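Dear Dr. L.,

I hope this message finds you well. Following up on our conversation about the binding site, I have prepared a predicted three-dimensional model of the protein together with zinc ion. For your records, I am including the exact sequence and ligand specification that went into the calculation, followed by the structure tokens. Please feel free to forward this to your student if that is useful.
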Amino acid sequence: MNKRSKKKRMKRIMKAVGFAFAMTVFSAAVYVTQIKEVNVNYLGQNISFKTMASTVNDALKEKNIEIKEGENISTDIYSRLGKSNNIVIEKPVVLAMAEPVAVEPKVEEPVEPAPVEKEVVFEQEPEVVKEVKTTKSATSRGVVRTTWAPDVTEVEDGVLETADGEVIEYSQVMQLEATAYCPCYSCCGKHPGNKWYNVTATGTTAKVGTIAVDPQVIPLGTKVYIEGLNGAKNYGYAVAEDTGGAIKGNIIDLYFNTHGETVIWGRQQVKVYILK
Ligand SMILES: [Zn+2]
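The resulting structure of the complex is given below.
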């Protein structure tokens, strides 16, 4: 081998080494930018870790953190992770409420009341609370549940058909996030006996089929049909007759009779069909 070709060969080797080095630096940089810091406060216990997962759900799965019934998460589990993320998973504090007289004994809810002993003092004698009449059935868990609506299929543009064969015409459909509320103090800040207890923003009595909306997104008085997505149950027919402090933008709040049901619902994606 002469000197000239040896030099050429060396040059080629140096080029290859340089390229490999550049690729290593590049992939390391990509790796670093994909690492996210996650701090989870799980029922008061802090768990910090780094992850390449892209969503909150994936990161929690990676650490085998499961959100159990009765626990709430501070963020949408399907949202994308940022560079650093603080997630709180907690059990809502259920206040022990003094039962108003002459009200039927409550069916036990699955939520364990927190060991907070708070006596509620009524400013005036609590009135007899009228039972909200809805179709409900007691399940084996002892929860008074809302009867879910049947499945719907789109038969043509703007026309749905329910599994029961009912035809529903709609003019618009939106995909929104739906939270849940009940008349309890922790949801609405009012005790039975308060003049505004269980009264909606439009002055109606809240009942199953009442939803709270941002009137900028869905005008008050609008009739809708709500279909649950990603395995969520169908809430069905509802009227936008309430508003709420946290209900701003693409979010609605579904009314349930009991707080246990609101906890079970949590936060779900829904399709809201605006009815004609
Ligand atoms: Zn509640």
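In brief: Residues 35-90 form a domain with the Ubiquitin-like (UB roll) fold (CATH 3.10.20.30).

With kind regards,
A. P.
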